[in-house]
Predict the structure.
Amino acid sequence: MSEKKKVLAFMCERSVEINETDLQNISDVGVIKFPCSGMIQPLMIEAALKAGACGVVVTGCQLGDCFYREGNKLLKERLLGERPPGLKKTVDRRRVLGLWLSKLQKSRFIDDTKEFTNFVTSLK
Amino acid sequence: MYQEILKLLNFGTLEIEKIVNKITTHKYNPFYYHGALPQFYLWVLYLSGLLLFAYYIPTVDNAYLSKSLVNAWTSVDYITKTLPFGAIFRGMHRYAGDAMVITIILHMIRVWFTDRYRQYRWVQWTSGILLFVLVLFIGQTGYYLVWDDRSLGLTRMTVTSLAWLPIIGQPLKHWFLNGDLISNLTMSNFLFIHIGLSFSLLFFLWIHYVRMTRPVLTPPPAINYILVALVLLVVFLCPINSGQMANLNHQPTTFDIDWFFLFPYWLMAKVSLLSYWLIMFLGVGALTIIPWFIRTKPVEAAEVVTNKCTGCSLCYRDCPWQAIEMVVAPANSRFKLLATVKPYRCTGCGVCVGACAFDAIDVPNLPDAQVLDQIKGLVSAS
């Protein structure tokens, strides 16, 4: 807990696995792990943005392949406003990124997160 | 050791699926419909079976070889040679059965390798094994119905193996033959077993699906067309022919084997009946207890915060495990309904937490408040 994180990543435990060295690689990103991406409440994303995070990355399993059957699909629908509860209208949609990746796609997670971090920090 | 191998296999499965995803996109990746594939073939089997049933005559009569002889074999012969598209439907019925066994095995292997068969999924696994055994047995009875040489051989082998069993052997034999000898009644019994058990599959499928919300029962149409096309391709490449009509005075010695259904008979011919039954029972038993090989501590079920729950039933609708039930709220509540968790079904995935707009349900491992603390800690730490 040394420096302030600009971007938070809400990560499904069954999706991409991140170790210490990867974390140093993306030092602007703070990681919170969830048993399933379906557990992530839109409220939590709102809370993160309200607390001062520039953006939120959400990772779930590859679509169609949720370990808990439907978590990633439900979260995706919630974020897109197709299923209650959704994000508030005031939430800047550019600051939320959903990544649906299997365990093997760590490099893609890191690349996309870096790009997203650069993007959201340049906003305003 | 076992778990490490499984982990490797899991990565292998994911790698294959990643490649397939690049070709088909996740929406049309057949691996993501692995459970729906055998279910689709079941519908194909029901429909093609209905047509065969309309023309099938369950008798073994062959006491005289006149031109007007009507029995199971001649009716199948009529279906194959005279009935328009009969051969195609018969072929589809045969090969869709094989395809169903292949897809069931794929389904089984995938849930095994991706660790989706144990703990809260034991009901699905054990009912799945039961379904698999039933499908194999139904498939075998299908081979008796044709009433060619092979049918006679298989029937006699089955009778021998059943009669060998202590105590229940003779009654089983009697039930199987519908009497003491192979007769017309035997054939109607076979037909009844074949069709009756096929419909009992639906009951066990209900058990298979009962703990799942929105089970994936049907692949997208594009996959369905390919599944049917694959079966049709095999039907045209390897058309089906019956052997000679069964002759009760003659004992068939060799016949072709359909490896998907008839492998037990191959085994029966190789080993003694004692070892045959031992292998069968132990094999099925071992498959059934696979979910308990790995010991894990029980799941801590989600808990409803009773005074916050508004009875909106969002969690009830979203729970993928049918683990939440809406009950009538207590008399002092402001609301009509209250969510309750069935702990024996809960997987601790937290989808209900994500569905709740009132923070009224919590997973003991990671309560909402803790998540919010973490968020604040990470964002505002200095």
The domain at 34-292 of chain B is CATH 1.20.810.10 (Cytochrome Bc1 Complex; Chain C). Chain B touches chain A through 47 residues (CB under 8 Å).
